[in-house]
Automatic annotation (TrEMBL):
Keyword Lyase included in the entry's annotation: yes
GO cellular component: a single term: cytoplasm
The family this protein is said to belong to: Belongs to the trans-sulfuration enzymes family.
Alphabetized SUPFAM superfamilies for the sequence: PLP-dependent transferases
Cofactors named for this entry: pyridoxal 5'-phosphate
Species lineage: Bacteria, Bacillati, Bacillota, Bacilli, Lactobacillales
Keyword vocabulary terms for this entry: Lyase, Pyridoxal phosphate
Protein name stated in the entry: Cystathionine beta-lyase
CDD domains: CGS_like
N6-(pyridoxal phosphate)lysine carried by residues: 199
């Protein structure tokens, strides 16, 4: 059983439905904290659900097989998964990290990990010379998001992994925006891949979850240790929701991409209202080729900068169908202003430095009819467009 879509539906295989002796077509929800021992000297694979739960195990096997990985781990959130990966490091270690990362990761690094004496250097991961020159004798890893947030620029997993291997450090990729359907980063050379399964993998805005995969045995042992010792594991009901979401991942993502293409065509026509559109493959530089070579598709998130003649707050307050909300990758379309919402964790100077202005809008295109989304955006532009002096004098 090798097809990607078959794996979405069945995980590692039909007989991976554990001790399902009822014929149920879904993996059972094992709502049990503890498991009886047959006798005091016997060995139990399952003994306590923080250590291992069969429903979680199904999901962990499933994400591993979708990523072509040996080991998968499920955590209580994408942030818990990122934290688990950072527990691989100790005081005095140095990590090279992309300057455009999820705001919560920025907060974890700056307000927590730096206090543990883990050192970070932020670089532009599209600039390979910048990445390589940041590597020091105590560097242990390079950490980045393949598609950066909110500018949707693509970093080459292959090129970064080549640098990392040359210097004997790990390549760690947060691939939340792509999922294994659009990129299998381990096969491109990454050592560890992280997903916030809250986004496309779950896909329905009804579960917070994080997943990590690796082929490295030592890393896997440490990630399991973190699950068991720190305890930030994903609860079985939440595992069920992610398992269910994953079954339709490819179908949903195909439609997200189709809808995004239609919305992009519309946004392209708004030359008076939009200064710039950010979407993979449209940067107009060498990263477009990386996108074509390393990604199977570009997902449903579009960022654009409004012209000064559009009031950004009025614009995002106006949609009647699209929700004003953070997050992405769900069936419903979501719109937000990164400056005030997802990236508010970044100090103002940092936001200015990377170009996150109050005019920047991030749109996660959902599965509604694209014509309805376009009509909703059109009426939002009409409400938010500032009148010129001549127009207001009329
Ligand atoms: C790229 C990325 N990584 C990680 C996270 C954190 O995931 P979670 O919200 O599941 O903790 C997010 C959340 O928005 C994200 O966008």
């Amino acid at each position: 059983m090798t097809g990607f879509n078959t794996k979405l539906v069945y995980g590692k295989g039909l007989n991976n439905l554990h001790d399902n002796c009822t014929g149920a077509v879904n993996v059972p929800l094992y709502q049990s904290t503890t498991y009886a021992f047959k006798d005091i000297d016997g060995e139990n694979k399952y003994d306590y659900s923080r250590s291992l739960n069969p429903t979680r195990e199904y999901l962990e096997d499933q994400i591993a097989c979708l990523e072509d990985a040996k080991h998968g781990f499920a955590y209580a959130s994408g942030s818990a998964a990122i934290h688990a990966v950072f527990t691989l490091f100790k005081p005095g270690d140095h990590i090279v990290v992309s300057k455009n990362i999820y705001g919560g990761t920025f907060r974890l690094i700056n307000d927590y990990l730096k206090n543990l004496d883990i050192e970070f250097t932020q670089v532009d991961t599209q600039d390979l010379a910048d990445v390589e020159s940041a590597i020091k004798p105590n560097t242990k890893a390079i950490y980045f998001e393949t598609i950066d947030n909110p500018f949707m620029k693509v970093t080459s997993v292959k090129h970064i992994a080549e640098i990392a291997h040359k210097h004997g450090v790990f390549t760690i990729v947060d691939n939340t925006f792509l999922t294994p359907y659009l990129q299998q980063a381990l096969n491109l050379g990454a050592d560890i891949v992280i997903h916030s399964a809250t986004k496309y993998l779950g896909g329905h805005s009804d579960v917070i979850a994080g997943l990590v995969v690796t082929n490295n045995e030592e890393v896997a042992d440490k990630l399991y240790f973190c699950q068991n010792a720190v305890g930030g594991i994903l609860a079985p009901e939440d595992c069920m929701l992610v398992i269910r979401g994953i079954k339709t991942l490819s179908v949903r993502l195909d439609r997200h991409i189709q809808n995004a293409e239609k919305v992009l065509q519309y946004l392209d026509s708004k030359t008076d209202e939009i200064k710039h559109i950010y979407y993979p493959g449209r940067a107009g530089d060498e990263t477009d080729e990386i996108a074509r070579n390393e990604l199977k598709g570009y997902g449903g998130v579009i960022t654009f900068e409004l012209s000064d003649n559009v009031d950004p707050k009025a614009f995002v307050n106006s949609p009647e169908l699209i929700w004003l909300a953070v997050s992405l990758g769900s069936v419903e379309s979501l719109i937000e202003l990164p400056y005030y919402m997802t990236h508010a964790e970044l100090p103002v100077e940092e936001r200015n430095k990377v170009g996150i202005t109050p005019q920047l809008v991030r749109l996660s295109v959902g599965l509604e009819d694209p014509e309805d989304l376009i009509a909703d955006l059109e009426q939002a532009f009409a409400k938010a467009k500032k009148l010129t002096a001549v127009e207001s004098a009329k």
